[in-house]
DNA sequence: CGAATCGTTGATGAGCTTCAAAACTCGTGG
DNA sequence: CCACGAGTTTTGAAGCTCATCAACGATTCG
């Protein structure tokens, strides 16, 4: 990771939410980095040193078991990651974080982060709301992973990606994601996701332009993310 | 749910963490309830009205999809639930909550809860730490659900239950849980959990006394919760 | 232009769910 | 005290979803 001096304050969750009088302290404590595409920013199991904020780019937050991997979420502009470290008993990062594209980062060490929370009550409140959202998302994802078949999970994943990253001029989901990563985010294998995508294309729920994905039949795809279709449509 | 007047303050996460000068406001706003075994306290999809704290007993927090159910966690003495409501866009509870035994509860409505967070900074900080823990647990559980086979997930579930509820004089995990609920917590079907438990009993990793479960071989069972044993032990 | 990575496809079988049906509990009422 | 039925536990069998393995085509890149 390359250290830089640029200060992209308006895209930083941290710098945006602290009190004006606290900002000088932040500027004195924060470090700025650039991570290249594919670069590992945090390695699961390493000692916690601090917290990262994305000011530009996208980072995948993932966790592995043996040789398998699950992508928990994507952190993009304005997002925080590595923050789970604030209260781990073992003092180790529970997740890995890898840049999906060239990413600029704002970093502060964990003690300063904790102090900031204690001093900046609005920041604490906003962080609390952010956590509440994340928990909400986590709970849904747990349910999905446990109860949904792959096809439905894939539909959820695609909607999630579109909501988070929007669509480009071609109507395609605005993120470059390898099928490998899409599979890891869906919680299935590469091959299964591939085959399942073909089904969705066959049914004209989604379309491909090169490697980019567009949602063609919003309604039907969305239906997959809802209740189990279980018995009625045999 | 039966309304009562008892005030079990020392077992309440909420009452324990607010400022002394705020306590009168809490006592004026909080309501106390008793929920009977099996009683539904929160129904997924209902409008959010407030937040619950368990002062005695155990509550399962669960979420369903079609006719399947996943238990996300168990809230026991000192725990909070229904709190995800503070920031949902739709204003609906994302989870259900059901009493597993007779449970006493402390309840405050959502607006008062939010005000409390803004006024009681220590409470906000403690809640933040609690959220961080929950997120940590959620992330692990997501990984488990996505990547582990049932046998390993069951091992995780059993350790989790023992850690949370301890063991009784018979060395058994100190919670009465139907196999149905154990299955829903593991994220597998009733029959699969049953069969898998038999395997674990066969291998003498766990034992049964009536319906209570004891961990016999700590080390081997724990090994299942760690890395994939994948290729090396064929 | 070879080497490597990624995408595509088929075949196979393990793991798990589903269905179905005993065997066992346990509370209720005759 | 026993019979009954509802709920839970136990077991068997069938089949489906998905992971795994393997192989080949496509694309990138030094």
Description of the molecule:
The structure is a homodimer of 234-residue chains. Chain A is α+β, with helices and mostly antiparallel strands. Chain A folds into 2 domains: 2-123, Jelly Rolls (Sandwich); 145-232, Winged helix-like DNA-binding domain superfamily/Winged helix DNA-binding domain (Arc Repressor Mutant, subunit A, Orthogonal Bundle). Chain A has helices at 13-17, 23-29, 110-119, 121-147, 150-165, 179-186, 190-202, 218-225; strands spanning 2-4, 31-35, 40-42, 50-56, 58-65, 68-76, 80-81, 96-99, 103-109, 206-209, 212-215. In chain A, the strands form 3 sheets. In chain A, strands 1-2-9-4-7 form a 5-stranded antiparallel β-sheet. Chain A has a 4-stranded antiparallel β-sheet with strand order 3-8-5-6. Residues 230-234 of chain A have low confidence and may be disordered. At the A-B interface, strand 5, strand 6 and helix 4 of A face strand 5, strand 6 and helix 4 of B.
List the helices and strands and how they pair.
Two copies of one chain form a homodimer.
Chain A: E1 2-4, H1 13-17, H2 23-29, E2 31-35, E3 40-42, E4 50-56, E5 58-65, E6 68-76, E7 80-81, E8 96-99, E9 103-109, H3 110-119, H4 121-147, H5 150-165, H6 179-186, H7 190-202, E10 206-209, E11 212-215, H8 218-225
Antiparallel strand pairs in A: 1-2, 2-9, 3-8, 4-7, 4-9, 5-6, 5-8, 10-11
Helix pairs in contact in A: 5-6, 5-8, 6-7
Chain A binds a DNA duplex (30 and 30 nucleotides) through helix 7.
């Amino acid at each position: 990771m390359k250290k830089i001096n640029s200060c992209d304050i308006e895209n930083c969750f941290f710098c945006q939410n602290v009190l004006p009088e606290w900002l000088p302290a932040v500027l004195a404590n924060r470090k700025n980095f650039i991570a290249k595409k594919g670069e590992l920013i945090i390695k699961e199991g390493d000692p916690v040193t601090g917290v990262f904020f994305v000011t530009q780019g996208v980072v995948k937050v993932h966790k592995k078991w043996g040789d398998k991997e699950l992508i928990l979420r994507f952190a993009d502009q304005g997002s925080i990651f590595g923050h789970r470290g604030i209260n781990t008993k073992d003092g180790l990062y529970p997740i890995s974080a890898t840049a999906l594209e060239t990413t600029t980062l704002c970093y502060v060490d964990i003690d300063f982060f904790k102090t900031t929370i204690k001093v900046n009550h609005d920041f604490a409140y906003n962080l609390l709301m952010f956590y509440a959202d994340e928990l909400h998302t986590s709970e849904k994802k747990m349910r999905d992973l446990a109860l949904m078949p792959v096809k439905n999970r894939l539909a959820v994943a695609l909607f999630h990606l579109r909501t988070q990253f929007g669509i480009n001029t071609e109507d395609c989901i605005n993120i470059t994601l390898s099928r490998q990563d899409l599979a890891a985010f869906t919680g299935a294998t590469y091959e299964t996701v591939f085959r399942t995508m073909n089904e969705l294309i066959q049914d004209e729920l989604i379309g491909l332009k090169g490697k980019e994905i567009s949602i063609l039949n919003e309604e039907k795809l969305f239906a997959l993310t809802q209740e189990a279709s279980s018995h009625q449509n045999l």
